[in-house]
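Incident log, structure service

09:12 report received: a user says their structure output differs between two submissions of the same chain.
09:20 pulled the input from the user's history:
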Amino acid sequence: MLGARLPLTKSTVMTYKSSLLRVLEERGYIHQTTDAEGLDALAEKQVVPGYIGFDATAASLHIGSLVQIMMLRRLQQTGHKPIVLMGGGTTRIGDPTGRDESRKMLSDETIETNIKGIFSIFSRLLKFGDGPTDAVMVNNQDWLGQLGYIQLLQEVGTHFTVNRMLSFDSVKLRLEREQPMTFLEFNYMILQGYDFRHLCKDKDVRLQMGGSDQWGNIINGVELTRRMDSKEVFGLTTPLLTTADGAKMGKSAAGAVWLNEEMLPSYDFWQYWRNSDDRDVGKFLRLFTDLPLDEIARLEALEGAAINDAKVVLANEVTKLCRGEDAAVAAEATAKATFAGGGMGDDLPTLDVTGEGVRLGAALTELGFTASNGEAKRKIGEGAVRLDDVLMNDPGFLIEVAAGETRKLSLGKKKHAILRNA
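09:34 re-ran on a clean worker, output below:
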């Protein structure tokens, strides 16, 4: 039965020989490994195919997934083969990890549309092809969808104990909070473990990586593969990634920070990184850019106002990787025009205003600067809203925009938008 304890290696225990683990260690990706010495030796002597799984719950991933995508990039940069596993099958179930309620069921069409949208970020950050270190994308619906229920119970279910499954945090925490967990969700860990075993047989995958919250699921796959096929495979997790103030990566005050342009304008994406906490600059540069480590050390040592130069470098480098160089250049130019020159950059969010005009509070909500007209009213009352750099105090003020003209609406010092005639 699954449950034997695997060797656990913290990243500080040994000096790595392989370029793969050295790079991952130097840049801060390693939290836990099942067998660091064994993985290090394997990566020294051969190309290691490694994978990370992503469920297709939206048409884009957000920046909470970017550290995992960058790990696949590091895998390829050090001469190994990245496998992007799209959870076309597991998305139909939903990973219960860190959740208090079941995910909404998605249609097959929605899942396929989401996978196509998600692929765009991988195509920017990885080289796909048929070569020995070229990335490939696979979909676990291709094998899970063909797996009969009785076959699953006989071949895989016998290697899991309910006792062990109940001990996992994803299950235990849900039960402790008296939140229902469906039998469908309870099976998620079995299917994820089976994914590792299948990929090992089909593509000789030897490594699964993921966030620290996936440690239990990864161990299941390592143990299942060893028990069913007598094959040694490895697991590696990243630390839980939070900002210096303790917030979880992936969201801002305005909502999720999406990786795809269609879900979040490049200016807002750039601005998220530009607004990083001083204490996070070095960590983010190591994780999310390809800058050399000595240059990162120089940038994170800047003090006072000079640290803002490092934040601009961070915003530019991440935006180049995820959106392209043109997007980074345009976003920086917009920021300079908006903040330094008091102007309006072309890359700012826009709102088309009809001839009837729009009320001030409604404009803030339509732009997504506030979640509701009530919040807009509070922000206006706090003196946080300006129209063309003039302080506004009336939520019902009617904004009109003449033909051929534009106006600037600002909330605080960091949120700006262009209002134009429809």
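09:41 both user submissions now match this output. Likely a transient worker issue. Closing.
09:42 reviewer note: The chain is about 45% helix and 15% strand. The mean pLDDT is 86.
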